[in-house]
Write a sequence for this structure.
């Protein structure tokens, strides 16, 4: 049994990881989360207190992180500002959390000799052309296109520098777009699902031809635990489940699965600098560590996600109205 410190563990992919650790290991987890709008204690409800403890705090708080990291065998660093639209509106929180917060954690890990795993995104690589047969690999050059992806790229480079310069025992992973339970309604899939549940027509940026490589949060969690336990120190692993779908297909699939006409959605003005296509090649992770995704059928995973949001109205409803008010002001 290990003592894991999970930053951002009340957020979407962080909370899914905490649930996965409880279900598939004997590790104890301490969650530290700032509980911004995207963090929700309810996402950790029902987990045993003997296995999971919670600390309300900021990863940029040097004294707090020093104390928490000293008590941990490993840090799994999920905490991040992660919404592209928000980063275009106000980049400052992204620099503070994604860069300064990661620096503070790395310094604590260096001081205490603590194992460190850094969670990142495929968006650091920029985008691919829609007709490009290639996919991102661990050697793809960085080419971020938004304040969000630029700060995540910066945090990745900090981790690599602390590995090389100071010998921090770290690994990194860059993952494709997650979907599943506990995702904030500002994000693409839960926004469309909750719109339909409220009788609102889904919204699609531009033509809807932008492609994302979708992975269920449960599969992301299993990959991260695999890397934490068996990954080679200093290595980066890309996590993907071969789930490429364009946004139009996803919206139409949601509508069809929810018993609505497939064309019952509206087009809105495209996002500034909207990346065209992401695609992950996870060969290294699969070959080296033997990892395989469970949700290989995107439609099945999407149906399960719809069922979750349908059953968990009390979880997402408080955030829905303020989110839609913001989008309305932006014309989206």
């Amino acid at each position: 049994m290990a003592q894991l410190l999970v930053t951002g563990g009340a957020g979407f992919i962080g909370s899914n990881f905490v649930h996965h650790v409880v279900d598939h290991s004997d590790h104890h987890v301490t969650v530290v989360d700032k509980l911004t709008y995207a963090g929700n204690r309810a996402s950790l409800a029902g987990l045993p207190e003997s296995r999971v403890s919670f600390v309300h705090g900021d990863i940029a708080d040097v004294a707090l992180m020093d104390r928490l990291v000293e008590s941990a065998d490993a840090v799994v660093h999920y905490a991040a500002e992660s919404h592209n639209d928000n980063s275009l509106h106000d980049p400052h929180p992204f620099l503070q959390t994604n860069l300064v917060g990661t620096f503070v954690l790395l310094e604590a890990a260096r001081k205490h000799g603590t194992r460190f795993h850094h969670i990142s995104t495929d968006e650091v690589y920029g985008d691919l052309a829609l007709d490009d047969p290639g996919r991102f690999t661990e050697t793809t050059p960085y080419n971020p296109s938004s304040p969000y992806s630029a700060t995540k790229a910066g945090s990745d480079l900090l981790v690599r520098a602390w590995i090389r310069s100071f010998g921090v025992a770290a690994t990194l992973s860059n993952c494709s777009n997650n979907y599943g339970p506990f995702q904030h309604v500002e994000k693409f899939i839960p926004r469309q699902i909750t719109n339909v549940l409220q009788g609102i027509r889904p919204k699609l940026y531009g033509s809807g031809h932008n492609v994302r490589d979708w992975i269920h949060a449960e599969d992301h969690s299993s990959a991260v635990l695999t890397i934490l336990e068996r990954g080679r120190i200093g290595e980066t692993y890309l996590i993907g489940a071969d789930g490429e779908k364009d946004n139009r297909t996803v919206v139409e699939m949601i509508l069809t699965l929810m018993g609505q006409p497939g064309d019952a959605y509206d087009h809105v003005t495209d996002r500034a600098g909207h990346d065209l296509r992401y695609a992950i090649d996870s060969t290294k992770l699969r070959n080296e560590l033997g990892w395989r995704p469970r949700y290989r059928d995107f439609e099945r995973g999407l149906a399960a996600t719809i069922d979750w949001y349908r059953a968990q109205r009390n979880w997402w409803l408080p955030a829905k109205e303020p989110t839609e008010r913001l989008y309305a002001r932006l014309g989206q």
About this structure: The first helix runs from residue 12 to 24. The chain has eleven helices and twelve strands.
